Amino acid sequence: MVPISFEFYPPKTDEQRAQLDKTAARLKAKAPEYVSVTFGAGGSTLSHTPEAVQRLHSEHGFQAAPHITCMGGSREEIRSLLKLYRALGARRLVALRGDLPSGMVKAGELRYAEELVSFIREETGEHFHIEVAAYPETHPQARDALSDLDHFVRKVRAGANGAITQYFYNADAYFRFIDDLRARGVDIPVVPGVMPIANFSQIRRFSELCGAEIPRWMAQRMQAFGDDVHSIREFAADAVAHLCRRLIEGGAPGLHFYTLNLSRPTLSVLDRLA
Ligand code: FAD
Predict the structure, then answer these.
(1) What protein family does this chain belong to (predicted)?
(2) Residue pLDDT, tens place only, 248-265
(3) Closest protein CA for atom 49 of ligand 1
(4) Cα–Cα distance measured from residue 9 to residue 131, given in angstroms and rounded to the nearest whole number
(5) Does this model's pTM top 0.90?
């Protein structure tokens, strides 16, 4: 098996904290290399992300990597967050542009992840291992696929050590993306982001927003199961485990699971891979 990592979102209520604790305790048995914690758009979770990072580190013993975004943050705010993360013992960050929630207009001082990566390097040198986001199926707002690739390469040259992809269900999109990067002289590890499926309508909604394609044959199958949630989950776990096997066989350096703070969908994939 390749190294694995898990992504969580920061809880805001006691109920969500209890859910994260339960999920973290169950996933710990899979010995992840690290876990990461998302950062809400527009700074709405300014304090929730550091709190979750601390919780996952001190109560669950994980190496926890906060996500940090350009959105809604001035250079000064980002500088203080970096200080805080250093004080909490973080050695890894996921650096992103972020998205503004609809209706919000306040963007940050930094416009693109590339600028954020440069800023983090200027402020903290080599202290942090920096991951950035990659889009084998192209970022939904990109002008076109080739300019998106060029922007990705610039982001790496600004100082990223590795990348995690947006989730996808077409292994060929990932392999082609890696070939394109290698042809441009980029050789950092690019870890596939894996989205286990617990709920078909939820995944269809997410995919429309982030530009991930659900292959027609998968969508047709899940649709045909109707309200039979058990069959949808079993089918999806088989399909996602098959995708992971192909990725590993094709040389993927790791797998990063989007858990949505639930353990079961991720465990059903991992158990099939064991
Ligand atoms: P960038 O790399 O800056 O690219 C954004 C767009 O701008 C692309 O279309 C790119 O082609 C274009 N672009 C880049 N540079 C230039 C330039 N110089 N000139 C013109 N165009 C340019 N969002 C959150 O809010 N919080 C999170 O915690 C979070 N975690 C994520 C984790 C992962 C692994 C992934 C894949 C995504 C995550 N996101 C998160 C979503 C992400 O913020 C969005 O996809 C966002 O729209 C783009 O972020 P980015 O860092 O890829 O942006």
Answers:
(1) Belongs to the methylenetetrahydrofolate reductase family.
(2) 999 999 999 999 999 999
(3) 97
(4) 17
(5) yes
Q: Are 188 and 161 a contacting pair, CB within 8 Å?
A: yes
Active site residues: 7
Any ligand 1 atom below 6 A from CB of 114 = yes
pLDDT on residue 100: 74
- In the numeric block, the tokens 């590890």 are attached to 189
Ligand 1: residue whose CA is nearest its atom 44: 98
> Tokens 């080599």 belong to which residue?
126
Sequence-distant (6+) residues with CB within 8 A of 56 are 8, 20, 24, 35, 37, 62, 64
Cα 118 to averaged position of ligand 1 atoms, centre (Å): 15
Q: What is the ipTM of this complex?
A: 0.99
Please name each of the domains of the chain with its CATH number.
Answer: 4-273 (3.20.20.220)
Which atom in ligand 1 lies closest to the alpha carbon of residue 111? 3
98 C-alpha to ligand 1 centroid (Å): 6
Ligand 1 atom, smallest distance to 49 CA = 28
- Is 248 exposed, middle or buried, given 0-12, 13-18 or 19+ CB atoms closer than 10 A? middle
Counting Cα atoms < 13 Å in the Cβ hemisphere of 20 gives: 27
